[in-house]
Design a protein that fits this description.
By secondary structure, the protein is of the alpha/beta class. The protein has helices at about 15-25, 50-60, 75, 85-95, 105-110, 120-125, 140-145, 165-170, 180-190; strands spanning about 5-10, 35, 70, 100-105, 125-130, 150-155.
Length: about 200
Amino acid sequence: MKLCIFPGTFNPVHNGHLYMAEYILKNFDFKKILFIPAFVPPQKEIFPQLAVHRYKMVELAIKNNPNFEISDIEYKHSGKSYTYLTLLELYKIYATEDKINMIIGTDAFENLDTWYESEKLRQIVDFIVFIRKNDFESNKYDEMRRKGYRFHFAEMPFNDISSSEIRENIKNGQSVSGLIPEEVERYIKDNDLYKN
């Protein structure tokens, strides 16, 4: 089996995340995308009490797609969610034919050298990189290839949806319709999330 994972904070999960995962299914040779919400993302300041809500929102967003699955692997350890440690666990769980592939945006990809055990991480995973900017130039990433990162750029057009923008809209009482799945929008309202 070829495994593609989609780790992230998903605070909240939005349609851009789903478009990316659907693009991967259509354009790469994967049968399944495994969404992995981070319990405590090491690179971001986030309220710990949102962890369960973020997980449930991903669950709601993907429930109607049989090719999407959610993993609670980072919730079982409850501490900071380090991608390298998660990958080591995944290799024990799944019989993969090749390296695990990981979906990542250019913003996070550019900072991989600051991640926990980054030198070991790049040896055990291949990256599928989504462009998160309008002024994208692929040759800027040549140095990352020289360092040993293996990656492909997804050719999907730039999609300017961000979780921070959605949170800001909710806080200011603005509409988020069309940015997030209806079930997620309902969940946010029912649980009074992102109001302050």
